[in-house]
Amino acid sequence: MALIETGESMKQIADIKYNLDDNMKMNFLEPLHTLSTKDIKEVQVRG
């Protein structure tokens, strides 16, 4: 019984980790990439 509960807990932790990874990518890494590829190039062209 304890092994089943441990396995379920590990599965829940993995799900949380994947959700956090997706959230980090969507809310931080992708906007940062857009900033570095688009907005900074626009500043360099105008400057």
Written description of the protein model:
With 47 residues, the protein is an all-alpha fold. The chain is 96% helix and 0% strand. The chain starts with a helix and ends with a helix. The mean pLDDT is 91.
What would you call the shape?
A: rod-shaped
Assembly form of the protein: single chain
Beta fraction: under 5%
Using only C-alpha atoms, the radius of gyration works out to 20 Å
Low-confidence stretches: none
Give me the secondary-structure topology.
Elements: H1 2-46
TL;DR?
The protein contains one helix and no strands. With 47 residues, the protein is mainly α.
Main features:
47 residues; single chain
